[in-house]
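QUALITY CONTROL LOG
STEP: pairwise intake check
CHECKER ROLE: data steward
CRITERIA: each record must contain a sequence immediately followed by its structure tokens, with no blank fields

ENTRY 1 OF 2
RESULT FIELD BELOW
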Amino acid sequence: MADLHDPPLPWSTRLWFAFACFFRVLFDPRFAARAWQAREAAAALPPAGRAEPQKLERARADGAAPAPEAVESEPAPKPAPAAAPGVSSALQLLSLLQREGRLVDFLEQDIASFGDADVGVAARMVHEGCRKALRSHAKLAPVRREEEGAKVTLESGYNPSEIKLIGNVSGSAPYRGVLRHRGWRADELSLPTPVAGHDATILAPAEVEL
């Protein structure tokens, strides 16, 4: 379990991680069960005890060691249950990708019986629509500015959430290697404001022709 004093993750990493966890929880029952157990375990952690400040101050003023009852932990309120993570933004983005590129239709379609040419045509259409939706609502930028294949040096103190070391990793920074992927960072995300009564779980309404 992560320590409470661990450095916070940047916004771009939290967005990617939330999007990945959303699909894992939705489609992987075992992963969802493990995530739920981890949530329950975190909520059940006992709070650290603390001494009563007034009794300790009186003991110090009298020059005597505090009595045993002065350092006993006072009852602490039970921690509030962790709030469920919001998924409306992820659902909105998925809905946009479905509306513009039919992403959900493509992923839910069994393409094992299709020929490579048919899959290629469908993938091109999905790519075009999803790219349009993504560029309309998100501003992305590469994490590294160098061209892929360039030699780079990572000094001590680099951000491990921005750079993933692959290959034969040993020793400590500085690291010298070759940039294999520049990475992506979401600088901006602009999603439509839901109207009253909007159900974010409906990614695409059913269509009935009359």
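ENTRY 2 OF 2
RESULT FIELD BELOW
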Amino acid sequence: MLELAILGFLYDAPLHGYELRKRITALTGHVRPVPESTLYPAIKRLEKAGLIARETQPGSGAAPRHVLSLTPEGRQELRKRLSEPAQGDITDQNRWFTLLAFLRHLDDAAAQAEVLKRRLAFLEEPASFFYDESGSPLRAEEFDDPFRRGMLTIARATSRAELAWLRTTLTSLDGTAR
């Protein structure tokens, strides 16, 4: 998720590490804060792999700034990760949102649609947070516990909204993919 976010933000424009960290934090929010001890090793890995380049520029004060930019190989790698996401990128809500934030960088509408179809298939599978003794999923209405009932009610509403958006977007993409 972190490497995808780095590549995605650098696809738009070169950034220095501090600005990149601010943007990633804004994307992931309080759910997954990005400490420097995680960000900078990821930047180093991507730089060592030839996916990003570092250029030193004079800073506004005395210290120089290191500006990061995406290499042509980095652009290619981002498009590959977007078109061939891991299953966890489809099923995990936070990883899915990171993928979705940059899916526009995948220029091919048919490839975008394939990614959305994978998410749609995942959401259409019957699922629940809680099951009865026989292994059948429990519905929100079956709980006396208002908190578990609330959890299931919110999850169901969120899934319905996302399913509607996915179907509408897929219809739109099908028109542009031809």
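INTAKE CHECK: passed for both entries
DESCRIPTIVE NOTE, ENTRY 2: Residues 108-178 form one domain.
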